[in-house]
């Protein structure tokens, strides 16, 4: 089969116009010349989707024919962002489409703004999944992303008097041009009910599960377009509906309204994305959501396999299954897929226990994304028993074999070890430890940055590492340079195109050629002129979104990520308050003007996180309107931070704030995006910051604060935050200021909870311990910025040395070490 990538790239401007006009006229029933951006956005997207669907079909045929192994990426979250501009770039159709639209009187960049973000995720974990899908298609691997078709993605954020307000995300209000519904691949999912032990003719006993209820899963496919490649894969999102067959009875018995109630109840399962990155212990709906998703995906994986290779009941096909199917669990959220595959193989396909277990061990791998104890999932045994009785009995048997064989072999008759490693946490309310099930089953378990993977081994699962010394491994995260440079920063992309004689967006290591230009005055000037233009563009956006006027000559200092104590937005805030104090004391203070830019959503139930947003907004209000400091300081909290807003902020950033407590941020990926776009990092030795520092060298990053070992040592000797409050006059003055009504006129005490979290609250994330070191690093940074050629050199080297953090490299690591795929093109 000949390559299709060049074929797509040769689609002419005239042909694109024609395709757009076709959809305007026949799909949307619009006048050709209608002055309506939404209509043109939709028509352009539909026209592009036609081209994409053809490639999708070709890809499927090619992958089937070559019988390559396929990876199934199971994730409850995907933060896809907008699709139009990215798909155009990946197909090489951006320029021609831009020209076509121009003849129709529209700016393509303008139209792209019309699309809603697909915000089916919370943060890093969901965006990582989206980057991985991009890389898999770009590298011509066969991959299926599985996810949930949430009716509402992550909530929309606005501020009312500085306080976060949440409203529902309506990404599909009028339908999405990118989805294809596939009713023929619907699934029926059993749950609740009881188990009957049925004696078999051969004397054995078979467990038969009589479900109390069934749900229907309807798949929607979003095509995933590779960059300059032959491949279009799919992201398959499951929507939950009531199972009509099941409800037929209720309808027949005349209870028409009751039957509709069941529809509504079923639809809640995929209604909304859970907005916490914390474990929702005991929330039955969340548990059902996870199971529904896992069952649909596993059934679909099996159906696709059988469709290609024949019935799994044939023993000869079990081996083939392991050779053709890999399943990656994105955190523990899809863990039930393990039990569902076991159940299906044993109960429905007559596979015996040992073979079913061997298959699961070969097929599954698990990625850990956090060490924070509150995010580690545990589900009560009672809930498990009620919703999934058959799955629980399988889990018990896995546990028995694990404890009696594996654990007992290494630690004979050791009850303490059995209790520590058991899949069940005993106690007042016994719980299933989801991560333990993942580790026991998976053939590989990976962390997402080297330090994180080391800590997974040393602190989280040391006994598992002893049991299986090759199981725990590392795959450092990455980001796709297509969305995070080529598409979002066209000015810099053009400069790179004309400087580097290669497709750097595919081979990001080629950016290292810029090293030789880092000292070149002419190149520095070009590079910084682009940064300046991007800053001017962001200045306008800031004005539009907040009404605040900022100067592009100031340092643009950016912290964009979910709001969490461990990420320490409040350390940033404390330093801002300190700078403000210094400026009031000495208005002539010699410093480069600085704009601190925040973007962050707080989980709706996370009280202190919301108070930090409120405090930042209140401090911003005061500072931004204080003429005494002569615009040397501005603070901007941009509302509704999301992928499409990140795409505007990142190209304009001078400074990247990556200031989590060492040992708490598994990797971070915003750190990579910002550095790639020429921002210099101020950060702790945490997550991927460590590897970024290794790549750019100590001269091109501002590292401060406690190391992981120092944090541990402080904890061991009982960290006392009061000591810093008492001994550091600056800290004391800033914290005491929060108790007054200076920032909240007439309402003293409104910001005191933040001070209290540092003192009475014990400062769990060591903000006070790191404050001075952070302030010192900020001072050094300010000095460096005021030497323009030194700063330009640092910025260029950051862009030049980010090759390692291409998500293509991450995917190749997974392929080599975990999935063992071969390309199909
Ligand atoms: C946890 C939970 C718990 C149950 C309810 C829903 C929910 C949703 C998200 C999470 C996520 C916790 C893990 C996470 O997002 N980790 C982040 O993963 C990034 C990609 O590997 C990594 O860069 C970040 O450092 C890490 O915090």
From TrEMBL:
Coiled coil: none annotated. Keywords: Allosteric enzyme, Carbohydrate metabolism, Glycosyltransferase, Pyridoxal phosphate, Transferase. The modification N6-(pyridoxal phosphate)lysine is found at residue 673. GO terms for biological process: glycogen catabolic process. GO terms for molecular function: glycogen phosphorylase activity; pyridoxal phosphate binding. Its cofactor is pyridoxal 5'-phosphate. Its EC number is 2.4.1.1. PROSITE patterns: PHOSPHORYLASE (PS00102). It catalyses: [(1->4)-alpha-D-glucosyl](n) + phosphate = [(1->4)-alpha-D-glucosyl](n-1) + alpha-D-glucose 1-phosphate. InterPro entries: Glycg_phsphrylas, Glyco_trans_35, Pyridoxal_P_attach_site. GO terms for cellular component: cytoplasm. The keyword Glycosyltransferase applies. The keyword Transferase applies. It is an enzyme of class 2 (transferase). Phosphorylase is an important allosteric enzyme in carbohydrate metabolism. Enzymes from different sources differ in their regulatory mechanisms and in their natural substrates. However, all known phosphorylases share catalytic and structural properties. Allosteric enzyme that catalyzes the rate-limiting step in glycogen catabolism, the phosphorolytic cleavage of glycogen to produce glucose-1-phosphate, and plays a central role in maintaining cellular and organismal glucose homeostasis. Belongs to the glycogen phosphorylase family. NCBIfam families: P_ylase. This is Alpha-1,4 glucan phosphorylase. The lineage of its organism: Bacteria, Pseudomonadati, Pseudomonadota, Gammaproteobacteria, Alteromonadales.
């Amino acid at each position: 089969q000949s390559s299709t990538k060049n074929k797509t790239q040769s689609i002419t401007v005239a042909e694109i116009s024609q395709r757009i006009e076709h959809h305007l006229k026949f799909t949307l029933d619009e006048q050709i010349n209608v002055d309506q951006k939404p209509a043109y956005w939709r028509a352009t997207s539909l026209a592009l989707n036609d081209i994409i669907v053809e490639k999708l079909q070709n890809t499927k045929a090619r992958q089937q024919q070559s019988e390559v192994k396929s990876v199934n990426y199971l994730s409850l979250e995907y933060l896809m962002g907008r699709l139009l501009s990215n798909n155009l770039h990946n197909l090489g159709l951006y320029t021609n489409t831009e020209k076509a639209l121009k003849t129709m009187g529209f700016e393509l960049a303008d139209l792209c703004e019309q699309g809603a973000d697909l915000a089916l995720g919370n943060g890093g974990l969901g965006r990582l999944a989206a980057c991985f899908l991009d890389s898999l298609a770009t590298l011509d691997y066969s991959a299926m992303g599985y996810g949930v078709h949430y009716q509402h993605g992550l909530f929309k954020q606005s501020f009312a008097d500085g306080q976060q307000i949440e409203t529902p995300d309506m990404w599909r209000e009028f339908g999405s041009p990118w989805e294809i519904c596939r009713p023929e691949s619907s699934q029926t999912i059993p749950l609740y009910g009881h188990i009957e032990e049925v004696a078999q003719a051969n004397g054995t006993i078979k467990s038969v599960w009589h479900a109390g209820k069934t749900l229907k899963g309807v798949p929607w496919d979003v095509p995933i377009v590779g960059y300059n490649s032959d491949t279009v894969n799919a992201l398959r999102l499951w929507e939950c509906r009531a199972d009509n067959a099941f409800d037929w009875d209720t309808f027949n018995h005349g209870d028409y309204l009751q039957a509709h109630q069941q529809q509504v109840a079923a639809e809640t399962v995929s209604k909304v994305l859970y907005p916490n990155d914390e474990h929702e212990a005991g929330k039955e709906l969340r548990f059902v959501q996870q199971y529904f998703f896992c069952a649909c995906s596993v059934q679909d994986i099996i159906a696709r396999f059988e469709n290609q290779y024949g019935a799994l009941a044939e023993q000869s096909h079990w081996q083939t299954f392991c050779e053709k199917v890999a399943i990656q669990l994105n955190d523990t959220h899809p863990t039930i897929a393990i039990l569902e595959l076991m159940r299906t193989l044993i109960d429905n396909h007559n596979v015996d226990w040992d073979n079913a277990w061997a298959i699961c061990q070969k097929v599954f791998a698990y990625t850990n994304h956090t060490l924070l104890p509150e995010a580690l999932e545990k589900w009560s045994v009672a809930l498990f028993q009620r919703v999934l009785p058959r799955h629980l009995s399988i889990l018990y048997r896995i546990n028995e074999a694990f404890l009696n064989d594996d654990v007992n072999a290494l630690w004979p008759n050791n009850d303490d070890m059995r209790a520590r490693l058991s899949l069940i946490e005993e106690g007042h309310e016994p719980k299933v430890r989801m991560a333990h099930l993942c580790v026991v089953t998976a053939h590989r378990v990976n962390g997402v940055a080297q330090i994180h993977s080391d800590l997974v081994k040393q602190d989280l699962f040391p006994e598992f590492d002893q049991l299986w010394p090759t199981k725990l491994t590392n795959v450092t995260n990455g980001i796709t340079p297509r969305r995070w440079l080529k598409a979002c920063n066209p000015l810099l992309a053009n400069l790179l195109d004309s400087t580097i004689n290669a497709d750097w967006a595919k081979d990001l290591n080629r950016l290292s050629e810029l090293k030789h230009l880092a000292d070149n005055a002419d190149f520095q000037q070009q590079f910084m002129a682009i940064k300046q233009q991007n800053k001017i563009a962001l200045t306008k956006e800031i004005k539009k979104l907040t009404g605040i006027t900022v100067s592009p000559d100031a340092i643009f200092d950016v912290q964009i990520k979910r709001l969490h104590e461990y990420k320490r937005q409040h350390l940033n805030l404390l330093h801002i308050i300190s700078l403000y104090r210094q400026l009031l004391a000495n208005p002539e203070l010699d410093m480069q003007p600085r704009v601190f830019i925040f973007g962050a959503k707080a989980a709706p139930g996370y009280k202190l996180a919301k108070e930090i947003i409120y405090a930042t907004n209140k401090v911003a209000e005061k500072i931004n309107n204080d003429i005494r400091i002569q615009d040397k300081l501005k603070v901007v909290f941009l509302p509704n931070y999301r992928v499409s807003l990140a795409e505007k902020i990142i190209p304009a950033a001078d400074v990247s704030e990556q200031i989590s407590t060492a040992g708490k941020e598994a990797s971070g990926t915003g750190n990579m995006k910002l550095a790639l776009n020429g921002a210099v990092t101020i950060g702790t030795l945490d997550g991927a910051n460590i590897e970024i520092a290794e790549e750019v060298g100590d001269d091109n990053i501002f590292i401060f604060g406690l190391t992981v070992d120092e944090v541990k040592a402080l904890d061991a000797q009982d960290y006392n935050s009061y000591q810093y409050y008492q001994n550091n006059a600056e800290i004391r003055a800033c914290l005491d200021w929060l108790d007054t009504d200076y920032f909240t006129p007439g309402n003293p005490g409104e910001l005191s909870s933040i001070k209290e979290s540092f003192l009475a609250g014990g400062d769990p994330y060591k903000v006070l311990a790191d404050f001075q070191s952070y302030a010192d690093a900020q001072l050094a940074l300010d000095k460096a910025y005021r030497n323009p050629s030194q700063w330009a050199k640092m910025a260029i080297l950051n862009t030049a040395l980010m090759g390692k953090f291409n998500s293509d490299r991450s995917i190749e690591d997974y392929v080599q070490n975990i999935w063992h795929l071969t390309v199909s093109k």
